[in-house]
Amino acid sequence: MSTHDDKHLPARPAQDRPAQPERFENPGLPPHRPRRADLDPKAAKRAEMQVVALFTLSVIASIAFVVAYFAIDPQARAWVPGIGEMNGFHLALGLTMALSLLGIGVGAIHWAKTLMPDEEFVEERHPQASSQEDRLGAGQVLSHGWRSSQLNRRGAILGSAGGALGLFALPVVLPAIAGLGPAPRREQLFSTNWEAGRRLMIDPSGTPIRAADLTQGSVFHVMPDGFVGHAAIEEHGAEAVMHSRSKDPVILVRMNPAEIKSQKQREWGIDGIVAYSKVCTHVGCPVALYEQRTHHLLCPCHQSTFDMTDDCNVIFGPAKRPLPQLPITIDDEGYLVAADDFREPIGVSFWERERPGLLPGGNS
Predict the structure, then answer these.
(1) % helix / strand / coil in the chain, to the nearest 5?
(2) In what order do the strands lie in the sheet with 250-254?
(3) How far apart are CA 244 and CA 351, in angstroms?
(4) Cα–Cα distance between 35 and 257 in angstroms, integer?
(5) Ranges of the chain whose pLDDT falls below 70
(6) pLDDT per residue over 114-123, tens digit each?
(7) Neighbouring C-beta atoms of residue 164, cutoff 10 Å
(8) Judging by DSSP bridges, how do beta strands 219-224 and 305-307 pair with one another?
(9) What are φ and ψ of residue 296, in 5° steps?
């Protein structure tokens, strides 16, 4: 037993230390026990048919998943003993996907346990760069393994396994694709509810805005007339109003006309009053923070910053495009109204952004 004073003892000479073995002897492997399928061709054939049956079960379950996905009402109800009532659509998808995966898993295990080679061998470690003789030997081992696995003579297993693995992708991929919902219609991407003559209404009060009442530095968040307040839900429905709030919000600001740098910005505004989409061109967050001293608009999500004195061009952050400007004018009663819809798509970038029939002076 070592003591606290052992560290003060002198080290033993190298010749007195026990010799380290250059290698460990192979302890050996237990004797190989042949399986029934190794000795009896009939047993091997039964195991093969069982593996094929399991893979076929997976194929049938994957097809049943696809059929259930389209044939069963998502709101259907089912009663399960011991559980009670539950969603029948989810139950059918869960059972078919489970059977599909179960057939692949159990079939692969049964295949490995009964038909694949199970003899163990020990390979001595050798330098990383193998000799040509060793490489040829490795090729012979692989060739022997392929022949001994009998895969070249059991085409049914290969075919059923390929079908099971290939079709099992359907329960995984189909919900991901079909669950995205319908593709957006062209009018959803290229137009909003703003149109010529539609009044700008303060959100959420729904009050119209007189141009003469706006003082320099005034800021309002506005929505199109008819799409703000409880009356909008009764007239258009909750879904239409919700969709309107995803693309119609506008921020209205009155600045000193002398500080506006863009000629187009002046033409599309009224005496320094300008209106811009609140939907950030990065990922669609609401751009709602206005700094009066610098006339900067800030997106709170990722800090994209837009200069309101210069066509709302991006001066900081990940956004790549300026905020679209809403052309505005004044109606006969002095209220601010839209002169037209936005002349470019609002929000985040997407392919085919060019909109047919842009009005003269519109930016694309």
Answers:
(1) 40, 15, 45
(2) 200-202, 219-224, 250-254, 273-277
(3) 22
(4) 92
(5) 1-21, 23, 26, 122-128, 151-152, 180-189, 351-364
(6) 988 887 776 6
(7) 25
(8) unpaired
(9) -100, 140
**189 phi and psi, to 5 degrees?**
-85, -30
Instruction: Give the model's pLDDT for residue 183.
Output: 66
149 φ/ψ angles, rounded to the nearest 5 degrees = -70, -15
Structural tokens at position 230: 């409880």
C-alpha–C-alpha distance, residues 292 and 315, integer Å: 16
Which two structure tokens, joined as six digits, stand for 330? 């004044």
Peptide bond between residue 204 and the one before it cis (omega within 30 degrees of 0): yes
| DSSP states of 169-236 | HHHHHHHHHHTT-SPPPHHHHH--S--TTPBEEETTT--B-BGGGPPTT-EEEEEETTSSSHHHHHHH
Place of tokens 């957006």: 184
310/256 Cα distance (integer angstroms): 13
Rounded alpha-carbon distances, angstroms, from residue 326 to 25, 150, 198, 334: 84, 73, 12, 18
CATH architecture designation of domain 186-338:
3-layer Sandwich (2.102)
Place of tokens 């008819």: 226
Task: Tell me which H or E stretch contains 110.
Answer: helix 88-114
Q: What is the dihedral of CA 265, 266, 269, 274, to 10 degrees?
A: 50
Q: What is the pTM of this model?
A: 0.52
Domain extents in the chain: 33-118+146-181, 186-338
DSSP 170-186: HHHHHHHHHTT-SPPPH
Secondary structure (3-state) at 150 = coil
